[in-house]
UniProtKB/TrEMBL annotation:
The keyword Acyltransferase applies. Residues 96-105 have a biased composition (Polar residues). One of its GO terms (cellular component) is chromosome, centromeric region. Its EC number is 2.3.1.48. It is found in: Chromosome, Centromere; Cytoplasm, Cytosol; Nucleus. Keywords: Acetylation, Acyltransferase, Centromere, Chromatin regulator, Chromosome, Cytoplasm, DNA replication, Metal-binding, Nucleus, Transcription, Transcription regulation, Transferase, Zinc, Zinc-finger. Residues 42-57 have a biased composition (Low complexity). It comes from the Eukaryota. This is Histone acetyltransferase.
Amino acid sequence: MPRRKRNAGSSSDGTEDSDFSTDLEHTDSSESDGTSRRSARVTRSSARLSQSSQDSSPVRNLQSFGTEEPAYSTRRVTRSQQQPTPVTPKKYPLRQTRSSGSETEQVVDFSDRGHLTGKHERHFSISGCPLYHNLSADECKVRAQSRDKQIEERMLSHRQDDNNRHATRHQAPTERQLRYKEKVAELRKKRNSGLSKEQKEKYMEHRQTYGNTREPLLENLTSEYDLDLFRRAQARASEDLEKLRLQGQITEGSNMIKTIAFGRYELDTWYHSPYPEEYARLGRLYMCEFCLKYMKSQTILRRHMAKCVWKHPPGDEIYRKGSVSVFEVDGKKNKIYCQNLCLLAKLFLDHKTLYYDVEPFLFYVMTEADNTGCHLIGYFSKEKNSFLNYNVSCILTMPQYMRQGYGKMLIDFSYLLSKVEEKVGSPERPLSDLGLISYRSYWKEVLLRYLHNFQGKEISIKEISQETAVNPVDIVSTLQALQMLKYWKGKHLVLKRQDLIDEWIAKEAKRSNSNKTMDPSCLKWTPPKGT
């Protein structure tokens, strides 16, 4: 850590002193009258200077939860005269503004007593602070007991439902689930249409009083049901961070990376990634969006960008349509780039374990080109020789490109490569939450498209698998989820549900103008040898 530069006129003890106080340290006792008059004049002048600096300070009116800044004496205090310093509450830095890569920090005093989960006596991060969430430690414990009780009731009801189900392939919702769905719909209907004038004034007063040092008031902004779901998610995330701290992945003195500067975006991270300790403890990293090198400051990044000659990922461009391109990168030939890509992906993926052993993998990186270069959209990796025919080992869409159709394009491209290889593929398990949602949606669209174009009377799961390159297990699970697979008179039947097909056709008509589809004619690729 660089040493803090000592301001002129400040002593090593932290007490204020004037610039002329050094001339008064070695005076004799015979000149005590003169020195006392000079020290009095110096004290008054330094007091006026400190008062003017406080008036001009931009954080002079900052309120910190009932605590006030201690008034420093303008008289030098020797080490023998110092009183023992009282123990101060734990301080958390809160970022207020950012300009040209620099941060101004606002330090707010929080007591470290209590935890948002209600299961711990102390917290070590602001995400677990009850006071930041406008709660007390006792309220957090009461909410934890309520959550545990709801979990026990849910587990009991699930066991009862499993006992009542005689057919293992029966996927229809139970009566309890239907009643719960109706209850949720009624609770969401009770949501207020808008805030009253008094509530708006209360929220504005809270915002002006505490600023970013406390969470905004969330009551009446949505239904009570959705607010309760949000509170549960907050408690669960705080509990996950506490587990990481206890496992040693996050220590009390070092924080995980919270934000990264990536091109023209500033991204909030979701999970811990094993960057070197000297970088991880900074809390914020600066990355080159082309070579993925990570740096400590905006100045280093600016100098790097002036010298970096990369404008696209290394490797061969095997697909291009419009501004979207896909590059095939060999982990053995471009080891550093692939390692940096894996470390970046771990910031947004929970179930990722591969960071440095990238040689047995191929990486397919999707980019969007403009006049400055090819910007990273996402990527997926696959083993060069997969024993279980996995066509995807890890898949990621960058947060700034999510919910725009790029995730399905990556999945579709992985199956397009499997078709060229004349293989049946499947993603490696376990899938992340967002990955599972994307794959289920993709499999649903593939099956509905196939059934819409199918004109025969008898259908085969094997034929569907060979034509779509989707694993039969994934096809069966998707048909079961859509309630399109039934067992009747000793035979398995596939029901062609026209309502789902019509719904899919309507969605396709709305997306007809979108170019978020993969064109097989734009692929220029041959399978690598040995695969």
